[in-house]
Amino acid sequence: MEQLKTQCENCAADQVYLPGTKGLSCNYCGHFTEFKTEETAANEANEELCLSSYLESYSPLPEEQIERHIVKCSGCGAQPELEENQESGNCPFCDSPIVVGQAQSKKLIKPQGLLAFDVSRNQARESFSSWLKGLWFAPNSLQKQITQHEKFKGIYLPYWTYDCETKTQYRGQRGDDYYETVTRQNSDGESVSEQVRKTRWRSVRGEVYDSFDDVLVPATHSLPRKMLYELEPWDLNNVVDYKEEYLSGYVTESYQVDLKEGFIEAKDIMKPQIERTIHRDIGGDRQQITSTQTQFSKETFKHLLCPVWVSAYRHKGELYQILVNARTGEIQGERPYSWVKIGLTALSVAALVGIGVYFYQVNAGPV
């Protein structure tokens, strides 16, 4: 995997970035080396780039590019970055062997910033252990199997963020409630009055405006979308300028979702907020939206890296993945179920209900 290695000034062994710090730690002697340059306000990390310019005539300057050696995993489709002299390896997302001979060199948009690892591997394991103990209906062999094979790998995942302004023209219906008194006869033949709510609808049309800042889109297909979104939120206010020392000892994945594809997904994320704005603009007690037409302007983007701990394991041939947000410790995971345990539990519940009914009938006696 793409792992920047810097030598320890004390023993010449490899150093890796130490989570939660601004420096490197030696794997052999534990010597800590602070970054040579002082960390300053994240200027490049927060610089917005014009989306239309990149989509229409992308011609980045050399300093805006980065060259990586990438191989596509045949098991899950991930695209981890490799070292030029790497001869073998396993995919960090599914643990399948990767064919390094098929690696390709690609020039990519350089990340502007990143969120550095703050949660250590041991802390990720503790979160995982707590999560594992709370699993219901897990196969008996699962905990032993995972404990034996569990290994967390630190990975920087690629993300896009998008900013834009929107103007949406809409058509719809506004519903205003009112009440009418209705008289009916009850079962005793008596007249009873009650208030019945009704809605008076009328057609409406209008125009609304929304502003969006840092709409975050994962630029990877290597992990389930649902799990990635459930790892959020990310503390983007703490993003720092891209610095290769932060990558030392960790895997970096190249983006698989390009800028255009990412913006399409970002539009889907924006849609609920636009609809809420329309509902407020329509007013009344009820609203219906029949059509919308949205125009986007001032579109900008950033390319960022976010840190996760990933562990993959197989149970009865099926792949399951565990993700830990390396900023917050939030864990999301896939797990198998023991249908035998579920079935036995259901039978036990049914038996208890049956026993309860029996004793109720016995105690109630004849009518």
UniProtKB/TrEMBL annotation:
Stretches that traverse the bilayer: 342-360
The superkingdom listed in its UniProt entry is Bacteria
Keywords of this protein's UniProt record, alphabetized?
Membrane, Transmembrane, Transmembrane helix
Q: Does the keyword Membrane apply?
A: yes
Q: Which protein, by its recorded name, is this?
A: Primosomal protein N' (Replication factor Y)-superfamily II helicase
Species whose genome carries this gene: Enterovibrio norvegicus
